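pinging the channel bc i need a second pair of eyes. not urgent but kinda urgent?? the chain im working w is below, pasted from the shared doc
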Amino acid sequence: MSRTFTWALSLMLLLPGLALGQGEGAKAFERCVPCHKGNGTGMVGLYPPLVRHAPEIVLRSRSYLITVLLYGVQGKIDFEGQTTGNEIMPSHYTLKDEEVAAVLNFVLTSWGNDKLLPGDFKPIGADEVRAERGKNLTKQQVYEIRKKLNLEK
């Protein structure tokens, strides 16, 4: 066995998340995969895509993107011809501030989403997440905020 191969194999065994390009955001995103799929395309008629949609949301309202993850949302969502039913996205309020920021930054930089963000875009920080906590919003209230942001297209 070559020395390089042995070193790489050891690294993969010791740091599997790092070796596979799995940071904290990718790890936290695993809970999103059943609905939004590993490639962020969602499920037609059920769950919206995160591809192209997440950058549009964050450019309209950083706090709203955080709010959706913290409190969940329920309501019909139209995006680029893909319409969902009245499905529920659950609250992920139990995630730590750093985990929420990490998963949102993972989504915003995956599947080509990073190319839709301005060059001076700053990643979402744990402090921004902390600022959105404690509002006790219902999923329907979150949906009403979405409607006010005019995110349907």
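so The first strand starts at residue 73 and ends at 74. and Residues 5 and 139 are 50 Å apart (CA to CA). — does that match what u expected or am i reading it wrong
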